[in-house]
Amino acid sequence: MTPASTDLTILALLSPFAAAAIAPVLTRYLKHNAAWLLAVVPALIFLQFATMIGPVSEGAKILPALHWVPSYGVDLSYLIDGLALTFALLISGIGTFIILYAGGYLKGHPQQGRFFSFLFLFMGAMLGVVTADNLITLFIYWELTSITSFLLIGFDHLRAASRRAALQALVVTGGGGLALLAGFVTIITVTGHMSLTELLSDPEALRGSEFYLPIFLLVLGGAFTKSAQFPFHFWLPNAMEAPTPVSAFLHSATMVKAGVYLLMRLHPVLGDTELWTTVLPLFGGATLLVGTILGMRQTDLKLMLAYTTVASLGLLVMLTGTSVNKALEGAVLYLLAHSLFKGALFMVAGTIDHEAGTRDITRLGGLRGAMPVTFVAASLAALSMCGLPPFIGFIAKEILYEGTLEVGSGLVVTAVAVLGNALMFAIAAAVVLKPFFGPKVETPKHAHEGPVLLFAGPVALSVTGLVAALLAHTTGELFVAPTLSSLLGEAAHVELHLVPAHVGMPLLLSLVTVALGVGFYLSLARVRGAIAGALTAIGWGPDKGFDQFVAGLVMIATAVTRGVQRGRMQTYMTAVFAITALSLLLPLALADGLPEMPSFPEFRFYEWGIFAIAVVGLAAVLTAANRLTAIVSLGIQGFAVALIFMLFGAPDLSFTQFMVETLSVVILALVMTRLDLTPADHRPFAAKVATAIIASAVGAGFMLTLMSITQRPFDTRLSEFFAEYSRVIAHGRNIVNVIIVDFRGFDTLGEIAVVVLTGLCVLALIRVRTRTTSEFDDGAGEEALAKPQDLSNRAVHAPVLEAKG
């Protein structure tokens, strides 16, 4: 790949973020025409990736990269192989029509520019997920998809349902993202590989590791939450509260397949193990059945399609979990087919809602005359979803049935696939037949065909599903085979044909699927009633459980807050010092790090004098009649330490200690004189003993820690570095000054800023005075001032103070 082509690829991957910045401005000036110009961005991205189809289909891997944080091994590095290219083409291709569709769907909306911006941010994040080579970069893009989907789902933020759906999606997918981060960190630690390219070249690095189980579970946590696998499936249907362009883009063609992408990407290093081939088919099959059963109950077009998306994701996970080559080929084909027909059908549902005023199939009928173009697009997409020829969905169904029959537990997996596909057949039939056929029904709005911006996407995607099947051999060579090669970790050969070569079990299973699907459709009302009754009897579900979980979390947080934040400074300080003591003493005790007790040195007479000063200061603090005297007496300890520094040949440090101690005592004394302090400590004896124990523990902890450190061999490397380079680099002879001013200059600047702010706060405290009683309207102020105040509870009972000057 030439440098110019590499630059273009990186530009294509980053361009959606630039488009997000300019979208609001263009929309403000071009109004509804902005969509046409903005759609050029994903169209150009699609064309750039289309130039890679030839090389990638021949086995090439394209690895553009930019240095980002090289010191940590984090680069904006990308891996474009068959799997990444297929997803990138789907994201950019469907994204082009989504931008156009949004231009028509939200025409005249005051926040349309903001909506375009969110769409482009999501597009850029999703392109990054499917092409990122560096694991940390992949995670950053992964979390960015969660954040941008939160913004898109909650776009209509004035509605409580939208806010709840957005928060729910963020919590579920964000929580899974944290699990994925832990998984990636473990992978990097175990293998030493930070890039997918290196990891995939060493397929046994994870399968043979003792950490395979935790890595497997953590990766599944990220993949299952993002791709809405049971029991995390509930967030995806709720996300239909978002505008329809969001539903069509995020929840059918791109974001919800990120988990499937991750499982497919890591299949060469995590797949084909007993755990993989057990857990994935189990949860994938359960998700397939749960999604289709719940979808049969719905009457809202978007919810029907949303639940079938859940089911389709379950089917993809189930097929990926088999680790059978033919089943994986079926997964790739179904991935392609689903993106095309589901994106089209979501846009059709939005167009019907936009032009007829409702999405409820019980209130729709006879729209094929009023909306002929939309009807044709819906029919083509639904036929592909039903798995009927001559559409790509038919070929996908044939191949996946052939693959499930090769699985060890093939009968169970095949039965689940047939039942799930039959239920999806019935839902797809209902999505088209109920709104467009039958007698014409009076709708809230006068139904008519939408503008070209609304039907361009459904027509293009549904026709593409037809063309992909008619050119099945080319589709297999250019898209399916390279993608399958990425899943297998080796070159794969694919032969696709629209017409089955012979009558076999896959074709018979397709006929069974159609027959069951027709039966389910004809008994749709009864099936819907039975499912509704069963769900009512069950009552509780994951969606309600999420609300209970959040409510319980809030209750626990409230209880903890009330227990910890009790409004007493004495409690806070006691907790801080107790935890400090434990953090110092426990590691020393548990790690057998207690130092050896040194022998008592022979003091000279003046050293005994300094020691005596410290002891006198300690006695003065303990016997002080009031807090102000104790604070002043505490300065004696600091002066004693300063004298020790001077005796050991550190006059500059000694001078600093004298200044700091003097200022500390003066400032604290000034502050204390402004407070109404009780003259003595009236706490019970037990409280005093507890405080004394904690104080002694803190002192002992610091003493033992310092002794332990000083007894270790001294590492001279840092000292040698400063001695060697202070003169050469910083042109200074005083090494301490050079360290403070040059080597850690920004740290010193921060410390100065903190000292200045502290000084300003102290100045404000010193100049504060209590309001006089004349400033109060009644005698309440005098009463408050006359009442004794407890320092430990001043946050609650302090008198009203006023800053003067």
TrEMBL record:
The keyword Acetylation does not apply. The chain crosses the membrane at residues 6-27, 34-56, 76-103, 115-132, 138-155, 167-191, 211-236, 248-264, 276-296, 303-325, 331-352, 373-396, 408-432, 452-472, 503-524, 572-591, 603-621, 628-648, 654-673, 685-709, 748-766. The keyword Manganese does not apply. Residues 613-675 form the MrpA C-terminal/MbhD domain. InterPro entries: CPA3_Na-H_Antiporter_A, MrpA_C/MbhD, MrpA_C/MbhE, ND/Mrp_TM, Proton_antipo_N. Residues 71-116 form the NADH-Ubiquinone oxidoreductase (complex I) chain 5 N-terminal domain. It is a multi-pass membrane protein. Keywords: Antiport, Cell membrane, Ion transport, Membrane, Transmembrane, Transmembrane helix, Transport. Residues 132-417 form the NADH:quinone oxidoreductase/Mrp antiporter transmembrane domain. Residues 692-771 form the MrpA C-terminal/MbhE domain. Pfam families: MbhD (PF13244), MbhE (PF20501), Proton_antipo_M (PF00361), Proton_antipo_N (PF00662). It is found in: Cell membrane; Membrane. This is Monovalent cation/H+ antiporter subunit A. It comes from Roseibium aestuarii.
